């Protein structure tokens, strides 16, 4: 039989079809289509089946990528799905929103040899969507139930991954979330044009069908006492993410919107909810000159959301250059195509207010300085380079820090790092409190969905170990 792989020498890299910028900029639907079977098989067959697969080392979940690519290329899709879902709790979501250029695809050997990486993310998405269509996904319910119970605080990817593992092992799992919908940043942070919402609600439904209970509008530390959860459940997992927005620290600062407030409002509006802040125009970019400050994924989501809401103009300010943007290069390109203007090497000085209303933002040019010992270049202002950019709406997207959880939860025994993240034992995910574990952004700091999934899975394995030894010691 002819070798079905290594086709990168004659087949070019091809992404699934991307909707043209004009059409996609007026709705919140995903911008990439899905591969058809023939394309998925072809693209998977480009893999060079390396003995030491660097794509796998570049994937935080250590996905067995070469094997599921081979299965796809040879038409064995159900097996491809079994291999891919063995390590990844949400492969269809990672396939859509992982920054593959920095992870698996960035490490692909044929990318390094300038042939263009295998489109790993798109194939991963295709495999799982095919599995859903063909009913291969199956139930998460364990054949036998255990009488031990676990509370998970936070329904983002870390909480979902842990709930999948623990419910699969037969534990009674209840997930608490202060929002009215489950999914964490997947549901209310990341916009639909990157990840349509029914992709997440399908996974929440799958957990509910397996017996996981979701307690929504349940603010732990507010309406629900953390101490009560700790006493009621055999184990508690804290997976609350990081939500304290970094401040601009400028004159007129209070006139700027916070990125996540803007995105949550937009996402709620997309669900058809009545959102006063949207209807009043306070958090609606329609007809406005919008300036977004920041260069990460959140900033990219804000500029592209503003375009879709019908902004008059959208400008993104970033104080370093394009090469140093922390956001995914693919997202920057998408934003440029959709009409966002980037002002590189530009930093805000102050907001210009007239009669209490924002009319502009005063910015200054920056330049990169020599790299220091760490190799990172510094930045400094270019003298006499200030200019005012007209703006009716300024959105601050400078990233997030952890809230003060020990205080909010009334649990001073929970210890934090110097960054304010929860301190856990790196091997066991255990906090300083007996039966309390933590995972995801609240431990790692603002990161990526794929890392939250890994941490949630690993923490669940450790909770299982802990609960088994607890049960054994009770039985002895
Ligand atoms: C706008 C934006 C865009 C992003 N885009 C990407 C991307 O494209 N790709 C990518 O890989 N990553 C992206 N990220 C990062 C990614 O979303 C996070 O790293 C990931 O969601 C962290 O998962 P988590 O489960 O730790 O926390 P979260 O997803 O933040 O979930 C935490 C949950 O805990 C709940 N919660 C918090 N406090 C309490 C409390 N006291 N009581 C009850 N519930 C509580 C919250 O309501 C939330 O639902 C993005 C982040 C943002 C903000
Ligand atoms: S989980 Fe993310 S990094 Fe890993 S293979 Fe999938 S797309 Fe790549």
Walkthrough of the structure:
- Helices cover 36% and strands 16% of the residues.
- A five-stranded parallel sheet has the order 3-2-1-4-16, with helices on one face. It has a five-stranded parallel sheet with strand order 6-14-7-8-9.
- The chain has 476 residues and is an alpha/beta fold.
- It binds flavin-adenine dinucleotide and iron/sulfur cluster.
Which features characterize this protein?
single chain, 476 residues, alpha/beta, five-stranded parallel sheet, 19 helices, 16 strands, binds iron/sulfur cluster
Structure classification:
alpha/beta
- Overall mean pLDDT score? 94
Q: Using only CA atoms, what is the Rg?
A: 23 Å
Number of helices: 19
Q: State the helical fraction.
A: 25-40%
The rough form would be described as globular
Name the hetero compounds present: flavin-adenine dinucleotide, iron/sulfur cluster
Low-confidence segments: none
SS strand fraction: 15-25%
End-to-end gap: 59 Å
Strands of the largest sheet, in order across it? 3-2-1-4-16
Secondary structure tally: strands: 16
Major β-sheet annotation: 5 strands, parallel
In short:
The chain is α/β, with parallel strands linked by helices and 476 residues long. 36% of the residues lie in helices and 16% in strands.
Q: Secondary-structure map with pairings?
A:
Blueprint: H1 21-24, H2 37-44, H3 54-58, H4 65-73, H5 77-87, H6 91-97, H7 109-112, H8 120-133, E1 149-153, H9 157-168, E2 172-176, H10 185-188, H11 197-209, E3 213-215, H12 226-232, E4 235-238, E5 244-245, E6 257-258, H13 259-270, H14 276-279, E7 289-293, H15 297-309, E8 313-317, H16 329-337, E9 341-343, E10 346-354, E11 357-371, E12 377-381, E13 387-390, E14 393-396, E15 400-401, H17 405-408, E16 436-438, H18 441-444, H19 449-475
Parallel strand pairs: 1-2, 1-4, 2-3, 4-16, 6-14, 7-8, 7-14, 8-9
Antiparallel strand pairs: 5-15, 10-11, 11-12, 11-13
This protein binds flavin-adenine dinucleotide (FAD) and iron/sulfur cluster (SF4).
Residues 97-98, 153-159, 176-179, 184-185, 189-190, 194, 218-221, 239-241, 263, 297-298, 301, 440-441, 447-450, 452 line the site of flavin-adenine dinucleotide.
């Amino acid at each position: 039989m002819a070798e079905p792989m290594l086709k990168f020498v004659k087949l070019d890299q091809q992404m699934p079809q991307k909707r043209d910028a004009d059409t996609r900029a007026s709705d919140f639907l995903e911008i990439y289509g899905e591969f058809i079977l023939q394309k998925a098989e072809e693209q998977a067959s480009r893999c060079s089946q390396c003995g030491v697969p660097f794509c796998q080392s570049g994937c935080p979940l250590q996905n067995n990528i070469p094997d599921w690519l081979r299965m796809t290329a040879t038409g064995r899709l159900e097996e491809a799905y079994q291999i891919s879902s063995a390590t990844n709790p949400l492969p269809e979501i990672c396939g859509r929103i992982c920054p593959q250029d920095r992870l698996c695809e960035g490490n692909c050997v044929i990318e390094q040899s300038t042939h263009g990486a295998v489109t790993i993310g798109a194939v991963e998405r295709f495999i799982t969507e095919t599995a859903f269509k063909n009913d291969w996904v199956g139930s998460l319910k364990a054949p036998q139930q255990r009488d031990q119970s676990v509370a998970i605080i936070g329904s983002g990817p870390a909480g979902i991954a842990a709930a999948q593992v623990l419910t699969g092992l037969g534990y009674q799992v209840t997930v608490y979330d202060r929002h009215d919908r489950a999914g964490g940043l997947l549901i209310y942070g990341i916009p639909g044009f990157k990840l349509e919402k029914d992709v997440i609600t399908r996974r929440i439904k799958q957990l509910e069908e397996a017996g996981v209970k979701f307690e929504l509008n349940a603010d732990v530390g507010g309406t629900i006492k953390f101490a009560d959860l700790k006493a009621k459940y055999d184990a508690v997992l804290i997976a609350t993410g990081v939500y304290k927005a970094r401040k601009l620290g400028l004159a007129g600062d209070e006139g700027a919107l916070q990125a996540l407030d803007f995105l949550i409002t937009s996402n709620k509006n997309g669900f058809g909810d009545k959102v006063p802040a949207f209807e009043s125009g306070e958090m609606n970019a329609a007809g406005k000159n919008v300036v977004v400050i920041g260069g990460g994924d959140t900033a990219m989501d804000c500029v592209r959301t503003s375009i879709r809401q019908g902004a008059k103009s959208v400008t993104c300010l970033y104080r370093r250059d394009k090469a140093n943007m922390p956001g995914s290069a693919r997202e920057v390109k998408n934003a440029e195509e959709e009409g966002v203007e980037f002002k590189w090497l530009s930093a805000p000085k102050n907001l210009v207010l007239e009669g209490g209303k924002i009319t502009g933002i005063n910015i200054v040019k920056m330049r990169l300085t020599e790299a220091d010992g760490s190799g990172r270049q510094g930045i400094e202002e270019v003298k006499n380079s200030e200019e005012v950019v007209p703006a009716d709406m300024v959105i601050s997207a400078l990233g997030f820090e952890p809230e003060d959880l020990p205080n909010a939860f009334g649990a001073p025994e929970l210890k934090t790092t110097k960054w304010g993240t929860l301190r856990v034992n790196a091997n066991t995910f255990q906090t300083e409190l007996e039966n309390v574990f933590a995972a995801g952004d609240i431990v790692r700091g603002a990161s990526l969905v794929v890392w939250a999934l890994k941490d949630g899975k690993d923490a669940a394995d450790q909770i299982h170990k802990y609960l088994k030894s607890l049960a054994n010691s009770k039985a002895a």
